[in-house]
């Protein structure tokens, strides 16, 4: 498998099964995609999400009816507790060229990762389906360990553009940026006071 960052703005995402898992997957996509949840019943967790709901008993539907539901979808998630039904939806997606994630049953061609998100970065974590708990554990560790990552990226962005002006040798620019990144005192200062961290970075590593 290969990780990709997708822009799902305006794309149609279908979630089959509106229980706890279907609601979590719906919440994952609703920031960007046009999400429809198709299910016999709907979890209270779906309330407040910008998702459409469509009531249906999926096991009563023939393949043709399921194919009609899938029309125009970019990605589908099967999140019913019935693996045979989920796998059937998966086969129809494969036939129609629709990306497919299976919450229970045969693996589809998409895995939903744990995500660490800042305003300047995005980290996606997967164990290739082997242990979602480990993905979650890693996410929580990264969130704690790198709580100030956004500020470090901002500082790097700023120092990088200053360096481009004052340091003509690329290798030297790269060295200075690495030194700023690995300076524990600058990292500590970043947590409390961006301007102080910035001043330290300039004083220590930006002498042209
Ligand atoms: C393959 C995958 C398919 C997919 O893409 O959905 C999948 C499959 C399954 N998960 C199961 C169980 C749990 N999943 C979670 C939580 C998360 N699961 C997520 C992703 C994935 N889950 C994909 C692989 C990700 C990877 O590659 O690592 C996360 C990352 C993203 C998200 O769903 O939002 C999210 C954490 C978000 C976060 O907090 O950061 C918890 C809760 C917890 O851990 O607290 C439990 C209960 C504890 C446990 O069992 O671990 C079971 C049922 C097993 C059974 O019946 O016993 C199956 C089905 C099976 O295994 O057959
Ligand atoms: N991939 C993942 O991250 C995880 C997957 N799972 C697995 O996902 C499955 C779903 O879990 P939950 O959401 O907790 O179950 P749930 O019982 O809370 O919800 C299931 C939903 O599917 C709907 N449904 C069931 N059969 C249907 C049908 N024939 N037609 C239409 N709707 C139907 C129900 O109405 C309900 O809304 C389970 O098999 C569970 O083991 C569990 C935890 C995490």
From TrEMBL:
Pfam families: NAD_binding_7. It comes from the Archaea. Pathway: Porphyrin-containing compound metabolism; siroheme biosynthesis; sirohydrochlorin from precorrin-2: step 1/1. Keywords: Coiled coil, NAD, Oxidoreductase, Porphyrin biosynthesis. The lineage of its organism: Archaea, Methanobacteriati, Methanobacteriota, Stenosarchaea group, Methanomicrobia. Residues 139-172 form a coiled coil. The keyword NAD applies. Its EC number is 1.3.1.76. It catalyses: precorrin-2 + NAD(+) = sirohydrochlorin + NADH + 2 H(+). NCBIfam families: cysG_Nterm. This is precorrin-2 dehydrogenase.
């Amino acid at each position: 498998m290969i990780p990709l960052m997708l822009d799902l703005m305006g794309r149609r995402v279908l979630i089959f099964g509106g229980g706890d898992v279907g609601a979590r997957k719906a919440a994952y996509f609703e920031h960007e995609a046009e999400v429809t949840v198709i299910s016999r019943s709907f979890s209270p967790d779906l309330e407040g999400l910008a998702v459409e709901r469509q009531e249906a008993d999926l096991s009563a539907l023939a393949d043709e009816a399921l194919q009609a539901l899938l029309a125009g979808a970019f990605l589908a998630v099967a999140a019913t507790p019935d693996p045979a039904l989920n796998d059937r939806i998966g086969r129809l997606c494969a036939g129609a060229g629709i990306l497919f994630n299976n919450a229970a049953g045969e693996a589809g061609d998409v895995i939903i990762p744990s995500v660490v998100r800042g305003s300047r970065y995005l980290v996606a974590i997967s164990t290739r389906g082997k242990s979602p708990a480990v993905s979650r554990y890693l996410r929580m560790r990264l969130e704690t360990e790198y709580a100030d990552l956004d500020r470090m990226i901002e500082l790097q962005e700023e120092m990088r553009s200053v360096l481009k002006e004052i340091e003509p040798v690329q290798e030297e620019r790269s060295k200075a940026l690495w030194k700023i990144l690995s300076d524990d005192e600058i990292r500590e200062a970043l947590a409390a006071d961006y301007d102080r961290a910035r001043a330290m970075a300039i004083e220590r590593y930006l002498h042209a």
